[in-house]
Amino acid sequence: MPSSLGHTLKNILEAHADENVRAFQLAPLFEVNPVYTSWLLAQPMLTRKVAEWTEEDPKRTDKDLVFARRSLSLLGKSATRNFAASARLIRSGEAGTPRKKTDRVQVQPAQLIPSALAAENFCLERSWVHSEIAFWAGLHYDWITALVAAKKAPKEIKTTLYEAFREGVRMGQIAYDLARQLRSVKHGQYVFGAAVLAPIGKGLLSAAFPGNGGVKTWAGHLQSCEKLGAIRPFAEEFLQKQRFGTTSVELSSLYVLSLGLFSEVEPAIRYSREPWMLEGQPDLEQLAMMLSIAGSLAVNVRLKKEEDLPLSKQERAWLAKNKLSEESIRKTLASVVEVRIQ
């Protein structure tokens, strides 16, 4: 599976995120890829309409183009985007996947891009802004999940990806609430999505180091850290470099760069556990610090009243500087819920 989303899909995603772009204006972007057009007109939900249009004017020579534009207008912006994302995943999947214009394949977004849809719906249900960027974040998980399925990788890798996604959504809720309490946030549109993406490297490490054979595997690494009690989260992070030669955050950053949707804030993801490395870049440092705090808290959002917030000195100092009280942070944690993929 290629690392790139492809120009067609990337352009459609960016156009969909533009509130001034209407559904019919996505058609020229969609038509760049004739395979997408062919697949679209072959979908069961459009079969009757296509038959009606053909019967009305059976001799027209540009029917694929015209019918595709009509179909996209019927579908609307989000369904068009969902179709394009799903079709790209199919085309980038296993060998033997239909690729010719004459081939037919049923495109089912609910099965192909569940993380993207779940992240977006999570925001929509709460009337949170920038839900389309949340979709982008979830799509990163769907992309890797498709690759894992194509390679027939162990089930544990898919499970790790799912757990990373759930952790990311917990982080997203915390980071989003932090952003709402600040006077000014430069990269506000990326806060939730960047937080969702920050843990995805754990799934990548799981894929790169599968199995249960000691601490040099991801599962073995987690098992060894499980015995360390309260310092387990710190140990899981600290020992990654020693055992794997890289960290989950570094892999998250590289993966984000490869798909190109969050390039603007990639440094904040890369240094989401070391925000001070972005000193001199206040906007990115601010986002990195929100991700850092969210990451520290998302491990255990159900703290007891007598338990201290698991935050570093730097994180506590940042909260104090921005006049964010411990009481407000505990209220944020109490409101965090788990996301579920249908």
Provide the CATH topology of the largest domain.
Hypothetical protein af1432
Our measurement of the CA-to-CA distance between the termini, rounded to an integer number of angstroms, reads: 25 Å
DSSP summary: helix tally:
20
If you compute it from the alpha carbons, what radius of gyration comes out, rounded to the nearest whole angstrom?
A: 22 Å
Extract low-pLDDT stretches.
none
The SSE string, one letter per element, is: HHHHHHHHHHHHHHHHHHHH
Structural class, judged by helices and strands?
A: mainly alpha
CATH architecture of the largest domain: Orthogonal Bundle
Number of strand segments: 0
Shape field: globular
Q: How many discrete structural domains?
A: 2
Largest sheet: none
Q: What's the mean pLDDT score?
A: 90
**Beta strand %:** under 5%
CATH class category label of the largest domain: Mainly Alpha
**Helix content range:** 55-70%
Question: Please, could you describe this protein's structure?
Answer:
The protein is mainly alpha-helical and 342 residues long. The protein has two domains: 109 residues, no CATH class; 230 residues, Orthogonal Bundle (Hypothetical protein af1432). Helices cover 63% and strands 0% of the residues. The protein contains 20 helices and no strands. Helix 10 packs across helix 18. The longest helix has 27 residues. The mean pLDDT is 90.
